[in-house]
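Thread title: Can someone regenerate the structure for this chain?

I was given the following input by a collaborator and told the matching structure tokens would be attached. They weren't. Posting the sequence so someone can regenerate them.
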Amino acid sequence: MKEWIKLLSNTLLTNTDSDSKKDGKKLKSIMITDDEWDLLVDLTEVLSIFADVTTELGGSNYVTSSLCVRMLIEIIKTLTTRSSNQQTYIDEQEDAFDESNNEEENQDINKPVITFGLLDEVKSKLYMNMKKYYPTLTTAEALIPSILNSRFKSLDFVSLEHKTKTEQHLHQLFKQEKENQKKISDISNTSETPDISNNSKSKKRKTLMERLAKDSVVTAPDNEVGEYLQIYEIPIKSDPLIWWNEKKDKFPILSNLAQKYLAVSATSTASERLFSNAGNLLTNKRTCMKPKLFKKIMFLKRNASKF
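Best answer:
Regenerated them for you:
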């Protein structure tokens, strides 16, 4: 791009037409300097990570909630500079993501931009805004989806203190889930028992083996969390939902927890995309479309890539 603009400017200056020479001089006067080009390249590299995270967290065919904390921490690492580490306060009115906050809107484009230290300044403002919007990013509650994702369960992207607290919180959730499943099982067994209070004579005598089968309740081992944490992480390209489905017999309680937490979507992009498709299909000229046909077309629209 830079070389193409230079070539265009030189071509206009060497042209015999007076208007072309005039345009060439004007283009040369506002031409971006080499330092400005280098700054744009660096800014593109920094901002591209925001685009990557937006794309990844907007997916609908894979788990996204467990990716959220991991990716936000990676953004903060990318934005970390010496000045951002030293700065501990940000004005509530200052927002780097606010489009209306542009102090140099009327700057003369004929003057070159002083690029020295500008990249660090931009990264520092973005860093402080990330800290502002996500002040409690590594809490135990926020890290539960990550530890239940068998790709990130080692939590090597947080401190040892946060990792320990998250593991303790996972043990508590495991106990709660185990108690809830036991209550559900007891209620189910009670509802299936026939009411024989009015006819005691019709009560059927149970054999010894039936009594033993009744007393032997299948329970999950207490060290289920410990065994899970000892297993090696799976590759980044693997699907944790498939992994949990294969390990549900070994980790019955944790697999239920994983279904609850990993099924949560990190963003509303997928649902908004669905509403957009529905709006594009059901227009003012298609108000007489029957609901059955609409459902079939929407199904084909959303699942065409799978066939």
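Residues 160-192 form the longest helix (33 residues).
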